[in-house]
Structures are given as C-alpha cells and as structure tokens.
C-alpha cells in the first residue's frame, strides 16, 4: 500500500464541508467532496455563526472569514446576540447608552 498518496474524503458540501475542503486544498492536501444534492441553491434559511465558528474560519484560511464578513448581515438587535453578552461591535451592551 502506497501511504505517500492519499485523498481526504469529505462527506457533505455544506458550509463546513466546503470550508474544510478549501483549507485542505490551500495546504496542498487533495480532497474529494461527496454531496447528495444534485445542485446548489438557496434554501431560504437564516443561520448563525458563533464566535468559535468565525475563529475556525480564520484558522482554516483568513480569506474565508473575510469573504464571510463581506456578505454577513449582523443582527440589528442586542436581543439576538450570543450568550457571551457581547454585541456585533464587541462591546458589552450594559456599557452602551439606550
């Protein structure tokens, strides 16, 4: 068995699968992505990313996080913030004026 040649199989071409594929490819690691859907299209769902998910994007490839920030729409209300008690500006909401 030739252990010098390998290809990583990624099951699912969702956000996580494609991010992983881009990160591995940028490091010269060959990948093959398997996806059940025949095509890609909007599904009309809103999703949220935790600070850890954003950190992971930066670790995999800072360009992925930069692309995410260009198209992301932050929540307009402090009621829709993460449990870390910070809003999209990184400030503590208790220290801001109403």
Automatic annotation (TrEMBL):
<dbReference type="InterPro" id="IPR051104">
    <property type="entry name" value="FAD_monoxygenase"/>
</dbReference>
<keyword id="KW-0560">Oxidoreductase</keyword>
<dbReference type="InterPro" id="IPR036188">
    <property type="entry name" value="FAD/NAD-bd_sf"/>
</dbReference>
<dbReference type="Pfam" id="PF01266">
    <property type="entry name" value="DAO"/>
</dbReference>
<keyword id="KW-0812">Transmembrane</keyword>
<keyword id="KW-0472">Membrane</keyword>
<feature type="domain" description="FAD dependent oxidoreductase">
    <location>
        <begin position="8"/>
        <end position="41"/>
    </location>
</feature>
<dbReference type="GO" id="GO:0016491">
    <property type="term" value="F:oxidoreductase activity"/>
</dbReference>
<keyword id="KW-0274">FAD</keyword>
<protein>
    <recommendedName>
        <fullName>FAD dependent oxidoreductase domain-containing protein</fullName>
    </recommendedName>
</protein>
<feature type="transmembrane region" description="Helical">
    <location>
        <begin position="6"/>
        <end position="26"/>
    </location>
</feature>
<dbReference type="InterPro" id="IPR006076">
    <property type="entry name" value="FAD-dep_OxRdtase"/>
</dbReference>
<dbReference type="GO" id="GO:0044550">
    <property type="term" value="P:secondary metabolite biosynthetic process"/>
</dbReference>
<keyword id="KW-1133">Transmembrane helix</keyword>
<keyword id="KW-0285">Flavoprotein</keyword>
